[in-house]
Protein 1
Amino acid sequence: MRSLLTPTMCLAMALTGCSASVTVDDRATSTETTVATTETELVIPRETVEDDIANSLEESVGQRPDAVECPGDLSARQGESIRCVLHAGPDRLGVAATVTSASVQGGQLDYHLDVKVDEKPTG
């Protein structure tokens, strides 16, 4: 018996996660800043989180979502998470990204996101 997976079903599969290494730049006026910094915490910008989720999905299921929308930046601390919306054709699926590890070494922020897509489209 042969079974078929629709794009929505593929995107709804749980993902193992994605890793990223980005430069920490504390110059607020720099246009190349990929990670925002404050005196007390590092923040992964919304656009970077959205790209990381899309890249992770593309790598895991072979299909890039039409779009990923997150409500804001994500604190780069272990255990921090954010809920986003994934657009796949006419479907909208919830997706959670959780920081499972983060460290700064030599001006580089290395972090790992665990990405999980909801099984059912949102209403």
Protein 2
Amino acid sequence: MQLHKGEYHTFRQAYDNLLKYIVDNHLKICGNAYVYDLVSYLASSIENQYVFKIAIQVE
């Protein structure tokens, strides 16, 4: 799981960091990737305060 705080267009960096962690720790992706909005445009009008949780199932 990876948390990302910031604008939508900077999300890719957090996703890439999670993938690097998976590779570096010799884990195997065995499921889907999910992104959950924890703080989005519904809660804040300031994009750099958005918070997302990225989860990928591994074994």
Protein 3
Amino acid sequence: MDHRTRYALLTLLCAALILPACTGAPATTSQADVQATVEAGVRATLAAQPTQASSPTLLPSPTVIPPTATTVPTSPPVAPTAAPFTPATPTETSAGAPTATPEATSAPTDTTTVFRPVEGEAARIVTNIQLVFDASGSMAQRIGNETKIQAAQRAMERIIDTLPESPDLNVGFRVFGHEGDSSEAQKARSCQSTALLVPVQGVNKDLLRQQAGAWKPAGWTPISLALQKAGEDLQPGENVRNVIIMVTDGEETCGGDPCAVAKALAESQAEVRIDVVGFGLTPDVAKTVRCVAENSGGVYTDAQNGDALVQTLEELIAATIRRSTLRFVPVGIGGKPEEVSLTGLTNAQGEDVLTTVQLPWMARFAREHIVELPPGEYRFTISYSEIGGDQVARHVDTTYTAIIEQGRETVAVVGRGGVTFVNETPQSLQASDLRVDKAVNGQWEESIAPGQLVGFGAYFAFDRAFRLTPGRYRVYDRRRGAVLLDNLIVEPGKEITVRLRGA
């Protein structure tokens, strides 16, 4: 009995018993009359109450088999077409209303993207190696039972013999500090001395041998100038690796900043990597040139005698030729650059190898970035540094798999795609009824919540350009208990318009 029924009964009792007493009228009503009056009032009150509605019945969710997932391609994204992509609309019934697909109870297939080495003609990689040797006066000093210049020339003879003759390999030779002398009077001349003795064109072993024994130690040490000119010797291009291998026995003595030059070369279109061999350097001097390698993604190695120099150069050249790399290509909506963060990198054994690769500050980059990895299978995670977003935070991180093979490059195109939802039947579809789910680890997870009257962030809305991470998505109508679309594939850099229709 609710409060309205109780209130009506109390009113009847008052009318039958209390009111006559209050007004002074004689109490002529019998107990039977009172009971009859109350019973009649109860029947009238109950008859006047509305019947309570029963609980709504949820629509059933039959099982459907989701279509095979489409993986993100390994090649860079193509520009979006002029006409927006429209997924297939539901089948029309005789009444003209589309038949919605019921919500799937089976798990969606995995959509983890696997990046593999580039195949075909695109897999061909041209390697340009510029050998840059110090010819300053200090190279006349002895190291062991020979002078530094003799050890360097012996190392050159050795590595020339081991160079493979390949159409995809070009090796040049440049020296610096080979003019003037180490006096103050000759400093200006010596600090402008660097010469390309062998151009970076093919592998001309005869010319390399000839020039290896022709240079003599002379003056000062213009490392910055030599690196700048060596960078100009190397040309950018698709699938081209440009590497400088520099041997020096001293620090910059001509006022330049070799560390800044190295950083600029690495960020240039030629994407120059610089490996540095410190020949007989003290720890303090080594610190001044170590940054050249660090700023360009190269390696620094100490060689304290002639044999160590030979071995180091052989290893560096061999590693350059067979180097296996992973190239990150971040793209945003419409193919524009977008800053991403590499927040995880593990090998097949589950070991964290993120700290073993050269990365920018905070591991963030908005342009192509190359890391060197040993052959094997890796998993890496790409994240975005923005606060908030168009989907739930746990879906902003995307994990990929990369296969690395020796001497080859794997290209990983990463970034978000754009999706705009258009309401074709506004009379039957409401943003507050729709949500967007993402396939994650074989399960559908809510990625965009149903629309709100007032809200921002990960809430569904029509005619809004959502930035979504790559993967497979579906659109679910919670009011009708049905899936409107379950194979929406989002790819980096691509824009999609999805036209939705309801009953």
